[in-house]
Amino acid sequence: MPVLKNIGYLATCEEDGSQSDIHDISKAALAWEGSRITWVGKESDLPPNLHNMEAIDANGKMIVPGLIDCHTHLAFGGWRSDEFEMRIQGKSYLEIARAGGGIASTVKNTREASFQQLVEQSMDFLDEMALLGVTAVECKSGYGLNTENELKLLKVYKELENRHRVNIISTFLGAHIVPDEYKNNRDAYINLIEQEMIPTISKQNLADFCDVFVENTAFSVDEARHIFEIGKKYGLTPKLHADQLTSGAGAELAAEVGAVSADHLECISDAGISAMAETGVCAVSLPLATLYLNQQPMPARKLIDAGVPVCVATDFNPGSAPSYDLPLAMMLACNLQRMTPDEVLKGVTINAAKAIKREQYMGSLEPGKLANFIIVDAPDVNHWMYHYRPNACEKTFIKGNEFIKDAL
Fold first, then answer.
1. Model confidence, pTM
2. What is the largest CA-CA distance in the chain?
3. Which of 33, 105, 242, 336 has its CA 20 to 30 A from that of 279?
4. What H or E segment, with its residue span, contains residue 290?
5. Which residues lie below 8 Å from residue 323, measured CB to CB, with a gap of 6+?
């Protein structure tokens, strides 16, 4: 049973308390056995039976729970660097999409990519994410948009779950946009999602969640509502891309259908905030997308003040958020959304775990939970976010074992 000692500052990030309550402990120690935490507290209170156990020296550094990226589009074919310049020159996300770019471009490239190519690229991404302190990743499909290729993406995630130490959580996003071949018959595509994709995904146990992009260029509230009804019948919990580019009552729909989270929310209405607060829907902020699309950020302060649990994630994808750097997203959430560092930390730990329904065994440093934690070269969370650098994470532990690249 290893014991991590000489911890200068430790944040347990338990669910109790407000968004800013990270339950910090100075001069702490942490013990685990196998993959589970057995004890955490002040080193001076270490139980006698742990005094002679294998000791690891934290060298006075900070310990926080392993970071959880609760919104990514991890597997995709190709990149879209040409759109980066187009946006700089003033083209909007919607203009690029209507001209055949955006998601449709990635769908073409993803359909052409082989299963093995997607697996190997995603393995490389996960390696780099783990070195940044990420120990769990929610991975969406949505770049296949037909049964064969949506299943291909979800099977990529199943392969990653078996091969990589990072915890993988899969989400079906067949309702990302209507693909080109169904432009003149969107009802037929929705029928394909409901009558073929969802039943097959459920039968093969390939996803936990069903996501829908509710937007003018994607799916309406009524269409999303019906997709969610079918998804729930097959055991898929709703998630939403909501109110990103326009205020379209996506947050209100999230509350109505019992979604676990509503993500983006840059254009959320006051009614949407109230509905999410009343029903406990998590709000997932994606400040990298806000930055790349040059948008006004999600009104995090209003959501937090209303009692909505706010999470922070990368939205890693080849178009609107081509970065998997979650600590960078955390710093941006502080500066763009006026979230405090403590609020942001809770947003990538226990709140993020709630957004993927994993709070019972990850997201905080408590006995019985997974020994997912990171050693950060910073005296506290404020300094970590204030003094941003390429990587302050010195070591990442996943299920009790230190992650070392190329040592899988």
1. 0.97
2. 71
3. 336
4. helix 287-293
5. 288, 314, 316, 329
